[in-house]
Amino acid sequence: MRNLHRFISYAFHPIFIPIAGTYTYFLVSPKYSTSAFQYANLLPIFILTVIIPIICFFILKNMGLVSSIQMPTTRERKYPFYISMALLLMIIYKVIPSNYTIELYFYFIGLIAATFASLILLLFNFKSSVHLMGMGNLCMFIVCLSIHFEINITLALSIVILATGLVASSRLFLRAHKTTEVIIGFLIGAISQLLTVKFWL
Protein backbone atom coordinates (compact mmCIF):
# COMPACT_ATOMS: atom_id res chain seq x y z
CA MET A 1 0.00 0.00 0.00
CA ARG A 2 2.84 2.38 0.84
CA ASN A 3 4.41 1.78 -2.58
CA LEU A 4 1.09 2.61 -4.26
CA HIS A 5 0.84 5.90 -2.40
CA ARG A 6 4.44 6.72 -3.28
CA PHE A 7 3.69 6.02 -6.93
CA ILE A 8 0.69 8.36 -6.82
CA SER A 9 2.82 11.08 -5.21
CA TYR A 10 5.47 10.73 -7.93
CA ALA A 11 2.95 10.44 -10.81
CA PHE A 12 1.19 13.66 -9.78
CA HIS A 13 4.28 15.52 -8.65
CA PRO A 14 3.99 19.34 -8.87
CA ILE A 15 6.68 19.56 -11.57
CA PHE A 16 4.21 17.96 -13.99
CA ILE A 17 1.42 20.50 -13.36
CA PRO A 18 2.65 23.27 -15.75
CA ILE A 19 3.05 20.88 -18.70
CA ALA A 20 -0.22 19.10 -17.80
CA GLY A 21 -2.14 22.37 -17.90
CA THR A 22 -0.49 23.40 -21.17
CA TYR A 23 -1.24 20.06 -22.83
CA THR A 24 -4.83 20.14 -21.52
CA TYR A 25 -5.31 23.58 -23.04
CA PHE A 26 -4.27 22.43 -26.51
CA LEU A 27 -6.35 19.29 -26.10
CA VAL A 28 -9.64 21.07 -25.34
CA SER A 29 -9.21 24.45 -27.02
CA PRO A 30 -11.42 24.93 -30.10
CA LYS A 31 -8.93 27.51 -31.39
CA TYR A 32 -6.92 26.27 -34.34
CA SER A 33 -3.21 25.85 -33.69
CA THR A 34 -0.64 24.06 -35.80
CA SER A 35 1.49 21.22 -34.50
CA ALA A 36 4.54 23.47 -34.79
CA PHE A 37 2.86 26.12 -32.62
CA GLN A 38 1.95 23.55 -29.97
CA TYR A 39 5.43 22.08 -30.07
CA ALA A 40 6.94 25.56 -29.67
CA ASN A 41 5.05 25.90 -26.39
CA LEU A 42 5.20 22.35 -25.04
CA LEU A 43 8.90 21.67 -25.54
CA PRO A 44 10.40 24.70 -23.75
CA ILE A 45 7.81 24.45 -20.96
CA PHE A 46 8.63 20.75 -20.50
CA ILE A 47 12.36 21.50 -20.36
CA LEU A 48 11.97 24.43 -17.95
CA THR A 49 9.46 22.84 -15.58
CA VAL A 50 10.43 19.14 -15.63
CA ILE A 51 13.98 18.54 -16.88
CA ILE A 52 15.72 21.51 -15.24
CA PRO A 53 14.03 21.04 -11.81
CA ILE A 54 15.11 17.38 -11.78
CA ILE A 55 18.69 18.39 -12.56
CA CYS A 56 18.54 21.11 -9.90
CA PHE A 57 17.28 18.59 -7.34
CA PHE A 58 20.31 16.35 -7.84
CA ILE A 59 22.62 19.37 -7.62
CA LEU A 60 20.98 20.49 -4.36
CA LYS A 61 21.17 16.95 -2.98
CA ASN A 62 24.87 16.65 -3.83
CA MET A 63 25.46 19.99 -2.13
CA GLY A 64 23.67 18.74 0.98
CA LEU A 65 20.95 21.39 0.78
CA VAL A 66 18.18 18.79 0.51
CA SER A 67 18.09 15.29 1.98
CA SER A 68 15.44 13.62 -0.20
CA ILE A 69 12.80 14.32 -2.82
CA GLN A 70 10.24 14.67 0.00
CA MET A 71 12.14 17.70 1.40
CA PRO A 72 10.67 17.26 4.90
CA THR A 73 11.93 20.49 6.48
CA THR A 74 10.96 24.08 5.70
CA ARG A 75 14.64 24.94 5.21
CA GLU A 76 15.01 22.37 2.43
CA ARG A 77 11.82 23.37 0.65
CA LYS A 78 12.73 27.03 0.16
CA TYR A 79 15.42 26.29 -2.45
CA PRO A 80 13.06 24.50 -4.89
CA PHE A 81 10.58 27.35 -4.43
CA TYR A 82 13.17 29.93 -5.47
CA ILE A 83 14.13 27.82 -8.49
CA SER A 84 10.49 27.24 -9.44
CA MET A 85 9.69 30.95 -9.25
CA ALA A 86 12.66 31.78 -11.49
CA LEU A 87 11.72 29.14 -14.08
CA LEU A 88 8.03 30.13 -14.16
CA LEU A 89 8.99 33.78 -14.60
CA MET A 90 11.29 32.75 -17.44
CA ILE A 91 8.33 31.07 -19.15
CA ILE A 92 6.24 34.24 -18.72
CA TYR A 93 8.93 36.52 -20.14
CA LYS A 94 10.62 34.31 -22.73
CA VAL A 95 8.34 31.45 -23.85
CA ILE A 96 4.78 32.80 -23.77
CA PRO A 97 5.50 36.16 -25.53
CA SER A 98 6.95 34.32 -28.53
CA ASN A 99 3.82 32.17 -28.87
CA TYR A 100 1.26 34.35 -27.10
CA THR A 101 -1.81 32.56 -25.79
CA ILE A 102 -3.77 34.52 -23.22
CA GLU A 103 -5.18 31.45 -21.44
CA LEU A 104 -1.73 29.94 -20.93
CA TYR A 105 -0.25 33.30 -19.94
CA PHE A 106 -2.66 33.70 -17.03
CA TYR A 107 -2.42 30.00 -16.16
CA PHE A 108 1.26 30.56 -15.45
CA ILE A 109 0.50 33.82 -13.65
CA GLY A 110 -1.72 31.74 -11.35
CA LEU A 111 1.06 29.20 -10.83
CA ILE A 112 3.51 31.98 -9.94
CA ALA A 113 1.03 33.52 -7.48
CA ALA A 114 0.44 30.15 -5.82
CA THR A 115 4.17 29.43 -5.58
CA PHE A 116 4.81 32.86 -4.09
CA ALA A 117 1.99 32.40 -1.53
CA SER A 118 3.38 29.00 -0.51
CA LEU A 119 6.84 30.52 -0.18
CA ILE A 120 5.50 33.27 2.10
CA LEU A 121 3.84 30.65 4.30
CA LEU A 122 7.09 28.70 4.32
CA LEU A 123 8.89 31.73 5.74
CA PHE A 124 6.44 31.49 8.66
CA ASN A 125 7.30 27.78 9.04
CA PHE A 126 4.01 26.59 7.54
CA LYS A 127 4.58 23.74 5.09
CA SER A 128 1.59 23.79 2.73
CA SER A 129 1.23 20.84 0.37
CA VAL A 130 2.78 21.70 -3.00
CA HIS A 131 1.20 18.56 -4.50
CA LEU A 132 -2.27 19.84 -3.64
CA MET A 133 -1.35 23.37 -4.66
CA GLY A 134 -0.60 22.05 -8.14
CA MET A 135 -3.78 19.97 -8.30
CA GLY A 136 -5.82 22.98 -7.16
CA ASN A 137 -4.35 25.05 -9.98
CA LEU A 138 -5.08 22.36 -12.56
CA CYS A 139 -8.65 21.76 -11.33
CA MET A 140 -9.58 25.43 -11.42
CA PHE A 141 -7.91 25.94 -14.82
CA ILE A 142 -9.96 23.11 -16.34
CA VAL A 143 -13.17 24.54 -14.86
CA CYS A 144 -12.32 27.96 -16.32
CA LEU A 145 -11.50 26.48 -19.73
CA SER A 146 -14.86 24.71 -19.77
CA ILE A 147 -16.68 27.98 -19.04
CA HIS A 148 -14.48 30.05 -21.36
CA PHE A 149 -14.89 27.81 -24.41
CA GLU A 150 -18.43 26.72 -23.44
CA ILE A 151 -17.57 23.05 -23.81
CA ASN A 152 -18.46 20.03 -21.71
CA ILE A 153 -15.29 18.50 -20.27
CA THR A 154 -16.95 16.95 -17.24
CA LEU A 155 -15.09 13.68 -17.75
CA ALA A 156 -11.68 15.37 -17.69
CA LEU A 157 -12.64 17.40 -14.63
CA SER A 158 -13.93 14.28 -12.88
CA ILE A 159 -10.65 12.50 -13.52
CA VAL A 160 -8.64 15.43 -12.16
CA ILE A 161 -10.86 15.68 -9.06
CA LEU A 162 -10.44 11.94 -8.47
CA ALA A 163 -6.68 12.31 -8.90
CA THR A 164 -6.72 15.21 -6.43
CA GLY A 165 -8.43 13.02 -3.85
CA LEU A 166 -5.89 10.24 -4.42
CA VAL A 167 -2.98 12.67 -4.08
CA ALA A 168 -4.41 14.13 -0.86
CA SER A 169 -4.92 10.65 0.58
CA SER A 170 -1.39 9.65 -0.40
CA ARG A 171 0.20 12.69 1.20
CA LEU A 172 -1.71 12.03 4.41
CA PHE A 173 -1.01 8.28 4.37
CA LEU A 174 2.72 8.90 3.91
CA ARG A 175 2.56 11.47 6.72
CA ALA A 176 4.18 14.03 4.47
CA HIS A 177 1.59 16.61 5.53
CA LYS A 178 -1.09 17.28 8.08
CA THR A 179 -4.72 17.67 7.01
CA THR A 180 -4.53 21.46 7.41
CA GLU A 181 -1.45 21.65 5.16
CA VAL A 182 -3.21 19.61 2.48
CA ILE A 183 -6.36 21.77 2.56
CA ILE A 184 -4.41 25.04 2.58
CA GLY A 185 -2.26 23.82 -0.31
CA PHE A 186 -5.32 23.05 -2.45
CA LEU A 187 -6.98 26.38 -1.59
CA ILE A 188 -3.82 28.32 -2.47
CA GLY A 189 -3.71 26.67 -5.89
CA ALA A 190 -7.42 27.01 -6.66
CA ILE A 191 -7.76 30.60 -5.43
CA SER A 192 -4.58 31.77 -7.18
CA GLN A 193 -5.93 30.45 -10.47
CA LEU A 194 -9.40 31.84 -9.79
CA LEU A 195 -8.02 35.35 -9.23
CA THR A 196 -6.70 35.44 -12.81
CA VAL A 197 -10.09 34.63 -14.32
CA LYS A 198 -11.28 38.25 -14.65
CA PHE A 199 -8.36 39.00 -16.97
CA TRP A 200 -9.13 36.36 -19.60
CA LEU A 201 -12.49 34.64 -19.03
Number of domain units: 1
Q: Compute the gyration radius: what is it? A: 16 Å
* Count of discrete alpha- or pi-helical segments spanning 4 or more residues: 9
Envelope shape: globular
Question: Which percent band covers the strand fraction?
Answer: under 5%
Question: H/E order of the elements?
Answer: HHHHHHHHH
Please outline the major beta sheet: none
Tally of DSSP β-strands: 0
- Alpha-beta classification: mainly alpha
Helix content: over 70%
Task: Kindly report how far apart the N and C termini lie.
Answer: 41 Å
Q: If you average the pLDDT, what whole number results?
A: 90
Low-confidence stretches: none
Structure, described:
The protein is mainly alpha-helical. The protein has one domain (2-196). 77% of the residues lie in helices and 0% in strands. The mean pLDDT is 90.
Quick rundown:
It contains 9 helices and no strands. The protein is mainly alpha-helical.
List the helices and strands and how they pair.
Elements: H1 2-11, H2 17-28, H3 35-62, H4 74-95, H5 102-123, H6 130-149, H7 154-173, H8 179-194, H9 197-200
State the main characteristics.
201 residues, mainly alpha
